Amino acid sequence: MSYKVLLVDDEPDILEFVSYNLTKEGFDVYTASNGKEAVTKALEIIPHLVILDVMMPVMDGVEACEQMRSYEQLKHTIIAFLTARGEDYSQIAGFDAGADDYISKPISPKVLVSRVKALLKRLDAGEGGNEHDQEKYLRIDRERYLVITETGKELSLPRKEFELLALLYSKPHKVFSREEIFSAVWGDDVIVGDRTIDVHIRKLREKIGENHIVTIKGVGYKYE
């Protein structure tokens, strides 16, 4: 599957740099130079991921994010802000506007590609029809943000618990390291305590059963 990524920044050098590195990895990359143009382009192409600068002319990234989130067609689009380090004030506004993650710049090409792939795993986690479907016990409904058990019971989970379960559930039997989980669910730039994952895993086990999420000591977790 070829993912569509929309890059939005008013600096041509940034657009060229990021576009080059993502295109090289096989992504279909589109660009916009301000928030207003980004909203129009997003509605046209329905991207899987939007990477937004915050400070831009015509319409800033926060307002653009808010507008995108108001459209049903873009409900499942992942939105991440690419911002200069130290803009902590904008992170709160960004998350309030509906952003999924933050990526700090400057950033190396390798790390950037890694972050983009981690973000897109969230979409993979919601897709059905793979080779493991017959083994699965749950159904992840991203449209309604629900987890449905084999008995038809619907579980409404807090967002981070939902994303954590969806990640593990996307690849049964695969061991996800703690670092992979932090990156995919919380983002590398979000500071959380060492016990954060453990607490969320404990809460998930209380809701879906003790035997489905397996701890691999010293490594991470997997879904069975």
Structural description of this entry:
Helix 3 packs parallel to helix 4. It is globular and about 50 Å long. The longest helix is centred in the middle third of the chain and has 17 residues. Strand 1, helix 1 and strand 2 form a beta-alpha-beta unit. The strands form three sheets. A five-stranded parallel β-sheet has the order 2-1-3-4-5, sandwiched between helices. A three-stranded antiparallel β-sheet has the order 6-7-8, covered by helices on one side. Strands 9-11-10 form a three-stranded antiparallel β-sheet. It is 42% helix and 20% strand. It has eight helices and eleven strands. About 4% of the residues have low confidence. By secondary structure, it is α/β, with parallel strands linked by helices.
Describe the protein's topology.
Layout: E1 4-8, H1 12-24, E2 28-32, H2 35-45, E3 49-52, H3 61-69, E4 78-84, H4 88-97, E5 101-105, H5 109-125, E6 139-141, E7 146-148, E8 154-155, H6 159-170, E9 176-177, H7 178-186, H8 196-208, E10 213-216, E11 220-223
Parallel strand pairs: 1-2, 1-3, 3-4, 4-5
Antiparallel strand pairs: 6-7, 7-8, 9-11, 10-11
Helix pairs in contact: 2-3, 3-4, 5-6, 5-7, 6-7, 6-8
